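Hi W.,

Here's what went into the run:
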Amino acid sequence: MNIQKIRDILDAEVICGERYMDRNVKMACGSDLMSHVLAHIKEGDVLLLTGLTTPQVIYTSDAVDIKVISFVRGKQPEQATIDLADERKMVLLCTTLPMFESCGRLYKEGLIGCSEYDG
Amino acid sequence: MTDNLTSLRIQELAYELRIADAMSTEVISVESDATIMNVRETLRDKRISGLPVVDNHKLVGIISIENLLQSVITSGIEGRVKDSMVSEVVSVNSDEPLIYAVRKFDQFGYGRFPVVKRDSGELVGIITKGDIVKCLLRKLEVNFHEEEIEKYRASHIFEDIHSDHTTLTFQYKIKGGEYKSAGKQSGNLKVNLLRLGITPTIVRRIAIASCEAEMNIIIFTDGGELIVAVEEDKIKVNAIDEGPGIADVEKAMHEGYSTAPDWVRELGFGAGMGLPNIKNCSDEMSIDTKLGKGTNLEFIVNTRT
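Here's what came out:
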């Protein structure tokens, strides 16, 4: 699923990385627990949905090669977070939908979770 | 580069590059006061099918063979350019990303667009689809070479340096409690390892493990360091601190066991998955810890598979 479509489904705002909207993701993970992200995200093109907006989210995502993050519940990241994401050529989205609805909508449209991905 | 990566890179370049980077600056133009006769000669001599019309450096119109024929029919060859040119010209700005021009070609189906300076309207160039393709290919080739040269230098270090045993060592200092920059040094390490030509899958494992180790030093100690030794067939990371030490290593290795304070949990860490995760990501791991003295966590990832 490409990021453009994800943005449409979540009715999300693009915070940075607009130029990479044609990228594709194969699976998604919704978590506020960065320990979980580090331990369980599979290798491949992953979308991370999270309610955390600190710079750690970017550092953590970078370690596991996540290139697209959508913040849920309308949470806006601080500038430091945006700058770090920009440097790493990541796309940051922000949706007003809560976590459950965000994941539900994407899943209904066919985006699978990390545990289902077999690659 | 794989096909997929290449096409992604081309897309990125189309956004990164400006129209000014691709346009040709040698533009043949005509003034609006010139006669249709002049235009005919220029078109014939230069073997082109249209001309931008420029007065005082400013783009005021465009004239094509079709306009020229129309003009000959209505007012003969003595007619003036200003009477038969199209004055509503579709142009592009020189500072716009290349992708804008790509879209305009799709939208209008024209063969070329005049390029103007945004504020002054001064004609500075002309762009065709061919210009865009040439520019992208050139850039892609340059990038490819730079990447190759950089990789070559780094990944051949072990072959180029003659010794019985070669080790490259990186040292990263980590400040205790500085949770704002937690993960930063692991990010730096990751970039370096990729530059050395180490397989991305292996780099990813090391990045995850060192991110966890870095986090532990920040959470539990006043500071420490990561010492990374890159050898020909393996990478060894020592995360060393002079913190409180780990009271019960066996428990700490148990997934879900955590002694992290609340502020750490608010950052999304401290779920008791750190040490087990480091073990999962590495081929060997050991912990040397003394209460009140500090901890030396060592993990090794083999780079030859």
